Batch of 2 targets.
Target 1
Amino acid sequence: MTPLLPSPAVQPMTEAVFSLTLALLFLAPLVIAGIALINTGLGRSRSAAQALLGNLAILAVAAVAFALVGASLAGGLPGGRGLAFHAGGAAWEWLHVGPLMLGGLGSSPPQAQLGLLFEFLAVVLAAMLPWGSGADRWRLSAGAAAAAVLAAIVFPLTAHWIWGGGWLAQLGINFGLGAGFLDGGGASTVHVLGGLSALAVVWIVGPRKGKFPEVGLSTALPGHNAVYVLFGCLLALIGWLAWNAAGAILWLHAPLTSLAVTAVNTLLSASGALAATYAVTRIRFGKPDASLCANGWLAGLVTSSACAGLVTPGQALFIGLVAGILTPLLVELFEIALSIDDPSGAITVHAVGGLWGILAAGIFASQAGQLVAQLVGIATLLGLMLPLIYLLFFLLDRVLPFRVDPDGERLGMDLHELGGGAYPEFVIHRDESYR
Amino acid sequence: MKYAGLLAMPAGFFLSIAALILFPAPVPRAAFVLCGLAVEGLGLAVAVRGHMVARGGSQS
């Protein structure tokens, strides 16, 4: 079977394709629901209500910030103009300035409207990913402010470069690098940005109290509800199938006949990753680890975001297997060797998984230069966006401190921030470190 | 130390971009892009190391 490639000419969208894409986009929010459940389940029971409310608040804030400012910079709607500089005989469009507050949305072409809806879902998901990494010590107001920054500045810039005809999308035309940087399902704009934001948050807020004692190894602080986590994984699968199919239509201009393969690739990538993580944790710990298996499953889905519409099923399975092997090893490495306290594993699952998917899409591409285009995209995400995100969050932390005060961490985020717990009829145990 | 690492990372990015302009041939271009990524990797390693040192300092 030959790998799927985006068709070179973009055809106007028919009503049938519009309806199908819209239906897929209505299913895609199941990814968001799944991630919200996973973020909550992997945190402590005394912070569960704050965690789930935080996901909702971030969703709302990110959507509003993107509508007010971000969509203008993302350049999905007609009516604006791109700002470009010229170097090396090519135009480098690095910024788009369009009408604010979704001006011109109603009169824009159907494909642009669907693209904007996709971007709304993408920005919400990207903003939610760091929330799980800052669990049990990141203040809700600061989390919402960080979501606004991501939705208004960071995501729109990247989305424009990749999906809005910006310089990364033009690498193929300007420099003969395949079809330009390809990302049908938001591996870069959603998962890598979200995962790198999680790294910046973890660096700024620091580890949870008692996570890294002065003597000995790090303390295990397991998630409070494995059922939430695993059910979230199942919900995410349904949403991911729709998400990748919609992305393939919108950003890769894939024909409808290729959507079944895209869905099969998504499933195979996740399945391969789960099988690999199950085996690695079984060998490593003697028994399979539920939360790591959930992380492996998600990592497989994340890699599929980059390449499900571009590779064969066999390649998708291989890509998922690699992601599934890497995930538990990196989670352990980050925690034990690098002192990174990431309760949801978003840095490994979304940042590393997304980068691997982007790279794999280049490795398995049949077009000359595609691998270099994907590498340039990775260099942009790591070398430009991570420092930018860290700088913005660092400045935001000076204005609105990210970390809750020690008393709040002792009480739990539910009591401290909301005044009541998620499970009022159950006894919530305190940490050993506070006794 | 963390900030030094984070400042080195954009240098790697600009190295990768410069490769596109300076080298039309595919092999040197790819090699130069990889060099840019290597610089970014070094910057990230320094930033992570800086985070670990800072954590050790705050514990003692």
Note: DSSP finds 15 helices and two strands in chain A.
Target 2
Amino acid sequence: MRADLIDIQIEDFGNDVEISLSGSLSKAQLSAVREKLDSLMSGPGVFFFLNLERAHFAVDDYLEMFLDLMNKTRERNSTMVLLFRNEELLEYFSRYKNIFEIHESREAYKSSGLSKQLKQVGVYYGKKTGLRLSPRVAIAAGVLIMGWLITLFLIIAAQGKDIADKQSQIMALESQRDRYVQEIDKLESSIGPLKRLGVVEDTSQLNSFGAIRDWVSYLKHLENTRREE
Amino acid sequence: MKPVVSFLLQLSPQTAYGNLEAVARNLSDGLEILLNYRKVKCSIFMDGPTMEMLKKTAKPLSIGKIKAGVDEGLVEFLGGGFYDPMLPLFPKDLQVRQLKKHRSKLKSFLGLEPQGYFNSSLVWEMGMISVLEECAFDYALVSEAAVREALGRNSPVSGWFTVEDQGSLMRVVPVSDELSKAIGEDDLRWREIAESYNREEKPVVVLLDLPPQAEEIVGFFERLVDFVETNEVQTWPVSYIVNQLQPEGALSNLVSAGRKLGLPFAANTCREMLVQRPEINTLQKDLLNLFHRGKGNLQGKDLEKFYEELLPAMSPIFYRNLQDDEGMRSLKVRQWGFRYLQKAAHDLDSRMNFSGLRIDVSDFMLQGMKQIWVENPEISCLVDYNQGGILRLLNHKTPAVNLVNAWHDDGGPALFLAECLLPNEDLTTEQIGVLLAGRDRLFLEHYDYQVKRESGSAQVQLSGEQGYRVGEKQGVFLVKKELHFDNGSPRIGVAYEVANTTYQENPCYFGTLMELGLLESGEGPCIVADGSKVKWDRREPFIYPDAKKFKVFDSSLDAAIELEFETPTTVFIGPIFSASSAAAPQMFQGIRVYPFWKSSLAASEKFECKMNMTLSKR
């Protein structure tokens, strides 16, 4: 029953898997802990974070177990990171502190170096998909993709600029039209009294005038009318 | 000699009222009557939401009068928890938050700081002393029965005492149970009882519950004034006892299980409720789980806001073994309690940006045995692998509902995915219902568990031997039960493999029992089988044959569970009732769904079946 005293928590975030152990771990639980961790870490994941902050190890046998787990994760091209900050655990793992990847938290590991993490993800997916790229080819492919992206961006930017120009022209023309309409209104209002007195004939209201589309036709129409008369 | 009484007027927690606004308006009018009379001095306790409503509805003149009454010593307002919780059931952080929130509300409402602490359930444990001292309380009100028990005497106890724990001190004032009951029930012997307390003119504290019906509140205050006037009772607020009288002595230990909780008479502490009622225990453990997760992952304002979400789920209504919407015997109250928790869970997920899957193997129920908690952003559930791999909780976060929420009078928990064998006989629907309700043919032995992680999902694999009894035959089956969870979907896949390891044939009906706390509203359609709505009166059990899809939905909760079977499956469905002391002889407590398959299970034969469960909104 003592093996049942361990609390295990697994949080699966895709590539990141955080496994937390808590409780007092003695020799009685060793095989159970080994079996559980082995089973959990054989599943998918690139980074296995073992959070041991709330664990207390009563015997040294667990060090060997963690070394073994680390080797197995490396074989699967994954990484095992130990998470804790308490002094007792630092002391416990001091013999192998250069071998184990030890950090205070998952966030602390994430901010410890982007390149090694990218490399790790690359190695993992390379293994998983069977697609392997040499660094030079990867860089060339990267540059090519970046070039495509930049070209695409430039085209979009140029088109955007063109659209903006046309839009400003449209706006200028619209304001000009508004100004003309205002001016015509003003002129119409100024000749309004004269119109009412019958001094000015409003030819623009004539139907015949309105029907005539161009002056050439109009003149022909006038000539025909005169001839008929 | 004039009787000397300290009246303590107690308003039930806001959860007890249907119309809190009407209660607050009547309370304001009632207080005005009391203050106008000027000869009744008393102490009053009301919880935070009631106080907020009183502040919202009372006229400025009334609030001014109440403030003047406080200044003149006519009325004393007592402090307590914002939602009036039974403090020993909760972690210290939440206790302090409840007390400080109530204190700050009282300060903003009336500009005063309470001197005394009151809890309407009158629950007391020694661990509360340091918390009350930290929250600046001078004294606390406790049950007289508890003080008598501590003193080892049967005679009436009045005045005040001291208790200390871990270097902290608290003054405690006993509330007379006997006199409170006598005055509350208009017992003519009240004067005689009061005299036994009033030695040396020491006031006796009498607790009076304000009526839950809003329209009766004003009448209550009128009767109180009339009672004091007619009987020439001398009254004091409770603080008078502590401020003016000498202590009666020190108590080495003080424990009170509380009142009006539905606990057995012999119970010593309110924690007995967690042992007696698994539904209440599950709710409390769900709250503790959320609390610990929030505390471990959030900080600063995020943590404070998350704690605020948890506070309403601490209301005493969710920790009482009472019916008629006063406690957890009512399905509506249970749904209400879990709704608060699921809203908090949803809030926690968004604050933590939780995505993916979380599996936690720990002693969730704090009973010395591990369970497996599985959670994704949509659902969470508790797999009890020590008890046949049943689900003790199945929360759907978006409609904020726990589906495993039925109630059993026998004190057993509601079961979900509990495998059950029925004899291969010509059974009627009623007989199946009786056999399932009897719960003696279930696979409830311990399973070994294995968590198998896959890409975007995980499986909880359970395996072990399960004893069975089919008719006269008895034996052991080797059972494998697999629960499949996806990272972000409200779907659970279930697969069974039952192997007959014996040399005898065991024809039987193998199925899995689900006791759901749904369909409380009792109206409208609730079942869809293979795309067609099925009529059901929610009273008589029935069997639906050869279903490929079976859906139960609750319109009022906006929750549904759909079962999709690999092979055509017979589904039993029936109601769960419990006994009631009210006019209605039975209370509806949920439904029992039992999909089952016929199996011959010949010697060394294996039986396999699969189904998918999807939780959804209606």
Note: Chain B has a mean pLDDT of 91.
